[in-house]
Amino acid sequence: MADKKDFYELLGVAKSASADELKKAYRKLAVQFHPDKNPGDKKAEEKFKEINEAYENLSDPQKRKMYDQFGHAASQMGGGGQGPFGGGGFGGFSGNADFGGASINDIFGDIFGDMFGGGGGRGGQRRGGGRRARAGADLETQVDVTFEEAFKGVEKVITIHKRAECETCHGSGAKAGTSPETCKVCNGRGEVTFQQGFFAVSRPCTHCHGTGQVIANPCPPCKGAGKIRKSSQLSVTIPAGIDTGQRLKLTNEGEAGDSGGPPGDLYIVIRVLEHDFFKRDGAEITCDVPITFVQAAMGAEINIPTLDGMVAMKIPAGTQSHKVFRLKAKGLPHLGRGGRGDQHVRVMVEVPSRLSGEQMELLKKFEELSKKDDRTHPLHHGFFERVKRIFE
Question: What distance in Å separates the CA atoms of residue 386 and residue 361, rounded to the nearest whole number?
Answer without folding.
Answer: 30
